Amino acid sequence: MQTCKIFADTRTGSVVPVRHCNSARWGRLFGCALVGAITVAIIPNGRASGELDSTFSASVDNPLRAIAVQPSDGKVIIGGDFTYVNGTYHPYLARLNANGTLDAGFASYGPNGPVHAIAIQPDGKVLVGGAFTNIYVYTRGRLARLDSSGNVDTTFVDPAYENTVRSIFIQPDWHVLVSGDFIHHTIYSTYQYYVSRLFTDGTIDYEFFPPYFNGPIRTVSASGPYVAVGGQFTFLANVYRTNIALLNANGTVFSLFNPGQGPNWPVNAVIMKSPDEIFLGGAFYTPRQRVLEMEHYGVVIGSLGVPGGPNDEVRALALDASGRVLVGGRFTSVDGCSTCQKISRIDPSSGYPETGFGIHTFGPIGCTVEAIALQSDGKIIIGGTFTSMDGGSRLRLARLLP
């Protein structure tokens, strides 16, 4: 860590992004006034943590919803509402090389509708979920598995969800948890309200039998004997639970999880780091503001969302190797930090954002960061609805330094 002086433009009062800590030179050249000092992480090439990575360049023509990084080679799989990637027709799903160029070795025919979720199995096969009904000549009801070249894996049967898949989580035994807007499997005539579990071949795991929910489940995660689900619901199996619930391994309600009133608006993202470290992000502002941490009895712990939290909706969460929480969404400040726009990194023990991380401006007004993924080297890939960053064109996809 290194302490750097921070300057403001004397004409506008806005913070000047300091890239090399040679503050006297910045002051002479740009007419800046010293306003304070903070401690920030400086990576070996002298550039600031969270800075835009100029070695990665990629673009899509419509919103990006999902990102996954292949651990084997660092290639990046993206999904969303787009039909063109880097100016080339590649509908809804694509794979990029490490520098953002389109990977021509990944099948280009794609699904026939938007992709909202991507998960990579330990063997490199890729699960994709969304609003599509077929991929190439294969009927696939909102969920499919692809091989490492992007071709449909026909050994994974069509689970035939009748509505959109929003989230996919692969458990350690390779069982697949799926959540979304669906209520049944059309081929099997089986009703499973908004969440289900599949075997490794895509068939329904009937030993996982979730209760009735009265609203969609936007996100699912699991750790140990528990499955966490978040979304837009108020009860399940006649138990009052607002937008967050914990299930047992067999899908039944874990009744000892009692968050009280719970989040008062939808939960968009859940990460279970462990049974007693459950991170939530969403549109809620009670019991904490847009982000919080719980343990498996529903007790809010830590300092996330205190005192201020993001000032608008959180759409995506990720945890880095140090346990810090990356949040993305529609917000324009976090705990009063006006430079923490759309993407921020928060220390969960203090609840405070890193004010020296990722000082960016995004456009247009109201744009969002919808997805966050971490590379093995710590670099951060973000995607969403933004079309500019820091005054320059950046069409819905960018990479930040660690």
Characterization of this structure:
This protein has 402 residues and is mainly β. The protein folds into two domains: 40 residues, no CATH class; 348 residues, Methylamine Dehydrogenase, Chain H (7 Propeller), CATH 2.130.10.10. Helix content is 2%, strand content 38%. Strand 14 and strand 15 form a beta hairpin. The longest helix has 8 residues. The chain is globular.
Largest β-sheet summary:
4 strands, antiparallel
* Percent of residues in beta strands: 35-45%
The global form is: globular
- What's the mean pLDDT score? 89
Helix share bin: under 10%
CATH hierarchy: architecture of the largest domain:
7 Propeller
> In CATH terms, what is the fold-level topology of the largest domain?
Methylamine Dehydrogenase, Chain H
Structural class of the secondary structure composition?
A: mainly beta
Number of domains: 2
